[in-house]
Specification:
There is one protein chain. Helix content is 43%, strand content 17%. The protein is globular and about 80 Å long. The chain is built from 19 helices and 19 strands. The chain is an alpha/beta fold and 549 residues long. A hairpin with a 4-residue loop joins strand 11 and strand 12. Bound molecules: flavin-adenine dinucleotide. Flavin-adenine dinucleotide binds next to helix 2, strand 2, strand 14 and helix 18. Flavin-adenine dinucleotide (FAD) binds next to helix 2, strand 2, strand 14 and helix 18.
Length: 549
């Protein structure tokens, strides 16, 4: 029975991490069943369809398509047969109140021109920045991100001294940018990625220059049909491989017996036995709410979760807009006048930034099929503190205040979009993100990527306390973002396979030991027989003993 269940895997949650883990485990010969509480898979990368508009709930752009290409190639399939990618280039426009603008592009010449425009004479330094970030990127992906490594010494020990120096982990992200750029605008634009990592550019390590660089080097893409078309592609692959996906099935608890997982119990009472459970539900939520355990485990999990630094929450708006919005590209980030104060409000003071940074995505500018003919699908994201940092907040009122600020910014900066043109609106607050997808404390992107929460310092993808319990997704290794959680699926599958091999080796050596022990037993029995015979007056040995005697 145990042997059968060891090949059965229950995956709790059909986010991209859960789907990717499922594919990898199926390819390794496991029988995989995914239980998803919502009516469709995708998790944060979900879908709202209304009145001819198609909105992606979370991710609005795809980076590092090679991660998806590898996933499909592992299954002998071609990613491009499942998903068609549309390039978004120039990808992101940054805008400031003082009228400054900066465009990110995969075209290096264009990038250098943009740098030159904002900081005359900066193009040689901008080129040096690209070269440096490229070297960092290679080191990070080749040696740090794409492997399971639990020992900090071995993790960093994989780097040469030069590579270690290159990572700039002792310098802040902003200071690292300052080695190349003096322009406040360039530093703010390239450093603004820190927000999604759960820190400020003044705290997070310099290695994160790989983020803006990665977007330039690998491009930003919109799957045709929206990001949800990517989820549908991965779901199709999973089903073709024989993975069972059960949607609308909430897991009430992860069952344990004697310190190891026994399967899952669904809401309504149905049980599913399995020797391996992979939870794609946000890791701190899994430990504090789903795992059946004693009080000790629960208390330790609550303490660990409270200690984990999480990324901010978000308020997101989905607007169906009548007509075209002139001057608004696919993706625009509005940065505040007082940039540092916005990070302080968000991360230290625990309040919605007064001077609000936010971004606007209009994917129908790239794929007109996402809106009725001539209309525009608009998605807006504004960062907020997590739920615990604003206890008792009225999140509907907060969302109203944020909306007012956004329209005021549009009016000041000449974006031709006012409220009267919005014919459809849906709003998700951090409470909605928590309730719909189980996001711990309403944090949008999972555990933060501070120095103490990356690599072997991040929560590992297996439980040290409950055998057979594994984690996949944004709050475990390697981290947040669609490509990262797909890599997380690969890493957790490798972990499960290597643990199973370790157990088989142990069992092999136990069997060997048993065989050896029984050989020893046989030898001892022969020796005892010899002694018995020696002591016996009628035995051969006895004869010899007799002879001696
Ligand atoms: C607003 C927003 C914008 C983003 N923008 C981008 C972007 O542009 N590019 C990018 O790459 N990334 C972006 N991200 C990050 C990216 O969406 C996430 O890192 C990634 O999708 C997380 O995937 P995951 O595998 O961790 O699982 P999740 O998406 O968290 O999925 C977990 C699944 O578990 C299910 N579940 C929860 N509880 C239960 C239960 N009890 N039983 C069964 N099922 C359960 C949930 O319904 C969900 O489907 C964005 C995220 C957000 C929120």
């Amino acid at each position: 029975m145990r042997a059968t269940n060891d090949r059965r895997v229950a995956i709790v949650g059909g986010g991209l991490g859960g789907l990717a883990a499922g594919v990898r485990l199926r390819l390794a010969g496991y029988n995989v069943t995914i239980f998803e509480s919502n009516e469709r898979v995708g998790g944060r990368a979900n879908l709202i369809e209304r009145g001819g508009f198609r909105f992606d709930t979370g991710p609005s752009l795809l980076n590092y398509p090679w991660v998806f290409e590898e996933l499909f190639a592992a299954a002998g399939r071609n990613f491009r047969d499942y998903v068609r990618l549309l390039p978004v280039d120039p990808s992101i426009t940054f805008r400031w109140e003082d009228g400054a603008r900066f465009q990110l592009s995969s075209d290096a010449r264009r990038f250098l021109n943009e740098c030159e425009r904002l900081e005359p004479g900066s193009s040689p330094a901008a080129l040096a920045f690209l070269r440096d970030a490229d070297a960092k990127f290679r080191v990070a992906f080749d040696k740090l991100i794409c492997r399971n490594e639990d020992s900090p010494a071995r993790w960093l020990g994989a780097l040469t001294l030069g590579e270690l120096r290159r990572t700039a982990i002792w310098r802040s992200f902003d200071r690292e940018l300052g080695r190349f750029f003096r322009s406040r605008h360039l530093r703010e634009a390239l450093g603004s990625y820190a927000m999604y990592l759960g820190g400020s550019p003044y705290q997070l390590p310099g290695v994160f220059t790989i983020l803006p660089y990665g977007e330039m080097a690998h491009g930003l893409w919109l799957p045709e049909g929206g990001v949800y078309a990517l989820v549908e592609g991965v779901e199709r692959l999973a089903r073709e491989l024989g993975i069972e996906i059960r949607t609308g099935r909430r897991v009430a608890r992860i069952r344990t017996e004697g310190g190891r997982v026994a399967g899952v119990e669904l809401e309504g009472g149905e049980s599913f036995a399995s020797g391996v459970v992979v939870s794609n539900v946000d890791l701190p939520t899994t430990d504090t709410e789903l795992v059946e355990s004693d009080e000790g485990f629960k208390a330790r999990s609550r303490r660990r979760a409270a200690r984990t630094k999480m990324t901010p929450g978000v308020v997101t708006f989905y607007w169906g807009v009548r007509g075209q919005v002139e001057g608004l590209g696919h993706h625009t980030i509005f940065l505040p006048e007082n940039y540092r104060a916005a990070f302080d409000d968000l991360l230290r003071r625990g309040r919605v930034p007064r001077d609000l940074p936010f971004y606007v995505s209009a994917p129908s500018q790239t794929d007109p099929g996402l809106a009725p003919p001539g209309d525009t699908a608009v998605f807006v994201l504004a960062p907020t503190p997590t739920l615990g940092r604003m206890p008792g907040a009225d999140w509907r009122a907060e969302a109203d205040a944020i909306r007012t600020k956004i329209f005021a910014t549009f009016a000041r900066q000449g974006v031709a979009l006012d409220r009267s043109r919005v014919v459809f609106e849906e709003v998700y607050t951090p409470e909605d993100w928590r309730r719909r997808f189980g996001l711990y404390d309403g944090s949008a992107f999972g555990a933060a990527h501070t120095l103490g929460q990356v690599g072997p310092f991040r929560r590992k993808n297996f439980s040290a306390e409950i055998e057979g319990l594994y984690y996949v997704g944004a709050s475990t290794t390697p981290g947040t973002g669609m490509p990262m959680v797909v890599l997380s699926g690969k890493l957790v599958a490798e972990r499960i396979v290597s643990h199973a091999e370790g157990r088989a080796r142990d069992a092999g050596s136990r069997a060997g030991a048993a065989r050896a022990a029984s050989r020893v037993g046989a030898v001892n029995a022969e020796a005892r027989e010899d002694l018995r015979r020696a002591a016996s007056p009628v035995g051969g040995a006895g004869r010899s003993v007799g002879r001696v005697r």
